Amino acid sequence: MTEASTFPNLEGLVDLACRNGVDIRPTLLRVLTDLYVQKSTHSTEEEAQYVELAQRLIETVDAPTRATVAVRLAAYPGAPAAIFERLADLIGFIPTPPIQPGNGLAKPAESELVELFFMADTDERRLILINLDAGESNAPRGAPPDATETCHRLESAALERNTAEFAHILERSLTIDRALAKRMVEDSSGEPIVVTAKVLGMQPAVLQRVLLFINPAIGQSVQRVYELASLYDEISVQAAESMIDIWRGTAVKRRPAHQPAYYDDERRGARTAATPSRYRSARRNDALAARFKSTGR
User: Fold this and answer.
1) How crowded is the C-beta side of 190, counted as CA atoms within 13 Å?
2) Where are the domains of the chain?
3) Burial 213-248 (b: 16+ CB within 10 A, else e)
4) What DSSP line would sit under 184-204, residue for residue?
């Protein structure tokens, strides 16, 4: 088994259960398992990461969660024996896979997905976003017709540090709840702004200016801005669109469309010189996105 030191942020992942007094360990274990079984094959590293995290969680969650996870693993040919056997011991029986076409997974509640994303730390959010479209073959829908104007308005509001106007633009352009738009602007980590920029096709240099000005918690750290700029490069348009769909409370089917066009011709400049090694070294698991992937997109 891989040593715990391989996962420098393992304690932080499990300690999500302690945030705000809400125990989300059952949700976390289901999320990890959902993503694991979404992939037909796994590398040795991926399996070791799942086993490491699951072993920590199955000892602490309730019996219904153990049974649910055991049934999902029973339907998966490549289930890790150590986890499956431990679950069978804890629940007292060996589960059989559900009889249904393709052994599909139940769709999670959209509100649960939203909360899970906002409660996650930066590494967990990155894993969600870069894996959210894993296996997707459909083309992105493309930026909305008014994306260019929306990008201009967002940049202007950011430069003026007008967070209320920035949130209002997000609410209208993304068709999301007002409270959620406000939450996105006030988020101290910055990933919601990156997701928005990706969907709108915002030019990366403009994104950097927005990040520097819209939220002091982000803008005071140039390194954090560079890390978010790197995340912008890593995630796909499909993943960003899927995340927006989840925030809207919808899981629409994709339809082929053109790639979004950048509205600004500025080059990426300083971002290409950045080396956000923390993201590169935080490859702890390939797990959190499955809860998001099973929304029926």
Assistant:
1) 28
2) 4-106, 147-292
3) bbbeebbeeeebbbbbbbbbeebbbbbbbbbbbbbb
4) HHH-SS-HHHHHHHHHHT--H
Among 224, 228, 285, 277, residue whose Cα is nearest residue 33: 285
Cβ burial of 116 (10 Å; 0-12, 13-18, 19+) is buried
User: Which pair of structure tokens corresponds to residue 11?
Assistant: 């304690």
Both ends of the chain: CA-CA distance in Å? 35
Q: Would you state the structure tokens that stand for residue 40, as one six-digit string?
A: 């037909």
Give the tokens for residue 121. 């730390």
Residue with tokens 């080396």, as numbered in its chain: 275
Q: What does the alpha-carbon distance between residue 148 and residue 145 come to, in Å, rounded to a whole number? A: 8
* Pairwise CA distance, residues 103 & 84, whole Å: 17
Kindly give the confidence (pLDDT) of every residue in the chain, 297 residues in length, as a single tens digit, with 9 standing for 90 and above. 444 333 334 445 455 555 555 677 888 888 888 888 888 888 888 888 888 888 888 998 888 888 888 878 888 888 888 888 888 888 776 665 544 444 444 445 556 678 778 877 888 788 788 777 654 445 667 677 789 999 999 999 999 999 999 999 999 999 999 999 999 999 999 999 999 999 999 999 999 999 999 999 999 998 999 999 999 999 999 889 989 988 887 544 333 333 344 444 333 333 433 434 343 333 333 445 555 655 544
The Cα 3–Cα 184 span in angstroms is: 36
Residues 20, 292: Cα–Cα separation, whole Å:
22
Q: What residues have CB less than 8 Å from 127, skipping those under 6 apart?
A: 284, 285, 286, 287, 288, 289
